[in-house]
Amino acid sequence: MTSTFRIGCNGRGAQQSSLQRPVALEEASIDEQFRLVKEAGVFDYFDRLPSAENLDEYRKAIDKYDLPVLTASWFYRCIAAQYHDLYASRRWSCFAQ
User: Fold this and answer.
1) What CA–CA distance (Å, rounded) separates 61 from 1?
2) How far apart are CA 12 and CA 18, in angstroms?
3) What's the pTM?
4) Number of helices and strands (H, E) in the chain?
5) pLDDT, tens digit, 9 for 90 and up, residues 41-93
6) CA distances, 6 to each of 13, 28, 61, 91, 94 (Å)
7) Cα–chain-centroid distance for residue 66?
8) Cβ neighbours of residue 5 closer than 8 Å, sequence gap 6 or more
9) pLDDT score for 45
């Protein structure tokens, strides 16, 4: 049996930087994060669970950069106390889309 080991990147903090253009504290746009992760050439997927508010941006970036979103992010919230049940179900419904 052959298995594939895939490597993902969360994308947050992905920035091009140099001595002339140091790392900024602002987070790049979702499109820019996807572009940088794709251009790195070493990642197989984008590892983040989109929220309902930015789901359309993710869909566009997934198609544009041919980089799927696969994640276990926020999984710990699903197994937490009942307080998180509604929150978790909303996050997972975004992921299912």
Assistant:
1) 33
2) 18
3) 0.71
4) 4, 2
5) 999 999 888 888 888 999 999 999 999 998 766 555 555 555 455 555 555 55
6) 20, 24, 19, 23, 22
7) 13
8) none
9) 92
Q: pLDDT for 3-54, tens place per residue?
A: 688 888 888 778 888 889 888 888 889 999 999 999 999 999 998 888 888 8
DSSP letter string, 35-80: HHHHHHS--SEE-----GGGHHHHHHHHHHHT--B---TTHHHHTS
Q: Do the beta carbons of residue 67 and residue 61 sit within 8 Å?
A: yes
Domain chopping of the chain, boundaries: 8-96
Structure tokens that stand for 37 in this block: 């992760």
